[in-house]
């Protein structure tokens, strides 16, 4: 993508200074009062004190007094379409929740998915997210271009996007959870996935759009689909994603159907490796964690959703100690109604302290790393995003911490992670503003609120939830 130009054709610069900076680089470098210079869509320099004097082609200067600058957050697991089914099945575990909602989701169409993606992306951007991921796996016949609807919404918002083309081919009649009318044939799912990669995937350093391959879960897809999807992804050079080890019910399902646990089963189908990441991974034993570490398989940790569905507490401290790549995920907003990634920093820290490691489980800086560089590594983009370093893409979040909710916390990283959800003064993706002073600037968020409500009501009527 071309960098913005100043007068005379030179690369335009944005300067942010007088703010605290947490770079989240490999050394954990921080500046109590520093600056960042952005040239086009790249970070040109970062350091202590004011920006260098005499910079040319500066089109904007931002005074960051009272703020913390961090890398933009990176979401590693989501289901955008669920934005229009929030608040349903409020007191269910995962399997009961799925059985309740699959018949509703099987009635979505393209306008619904576009609206739901807008709502999901708005929540993500307003909570500091510059790279969004989505796992879309429900494709009712005749529903329209559902993946395209999400991609269009992300482009309109201006966020970096890593959608995955999901799929399900194991309906109830084959021993799966989804109703038969909600699944595709194996052949159709693979063909549509290949078409999505060929149509949209951009592997460039500056890419705003990368496609992944994502059969839904062991209890909704066939072994053949898992195996062939892995072959397809590797032939195309794209990443693989699925759900794994989310609940005790899933563990039981895999043992009964396949004679082994989820990790061993997924390994048998070619689903461990540096190009793979899995959502949740709550019920992992020592052998599972060791296999993930040995193969470089990543994890999308979704603390709020895991709590909402009473799935349990993932062993994140043990995974990190073993060297497993771990990022944060919102998960679908039917199991995390807030839809905000910023609050997952806090929830990851707090929930993991309820586990066996207690107060030693995670600290504030580890939580911030999960949400930034951890997510970048899980998505295979650690060379491009996830930290504030010269040469990386200008995906940055400037958090206002001098208001009443944060000003008495001396440590700005602690204020961001332990404190209330912090307002954003500026969110840049690819060097361009997406949020200014707590409002979306690329789209009309009030219009999104109206549209998502209307589409949620329309789906409820179609699905027979209302008269």
TrEMBL record:
Give EC number(s), comma-separated: 3.5.4.32
Q: What top-level class of enzyme does the UniProt entry assign?
A: hydrolase
InterPro entries membership? Amidohydro-rel, Metal-dep_hydrolase_composite, Metal_Hydrolase, MTA/SAH_deaminase
Check the UniProt entry and state the signal peptide residues, or none. none
Instruction: Give a yes or no for keyword Membrane in this entry.
Output: no
Domain Amidohydrolase-related intervals: 69-417
Alphabetized GO MF terms: 8-oxoguanine deaminase activity
What does the UniProt keyword field contain? Hydrolase
Tell me where on the tree of life, at the top rank, the source sits. Bacteria
Protein's name in the database = 8-oxoguanine deaminase
Q: What organism, scientifically named, is this protein from?
A: Streptomyces silvisoli
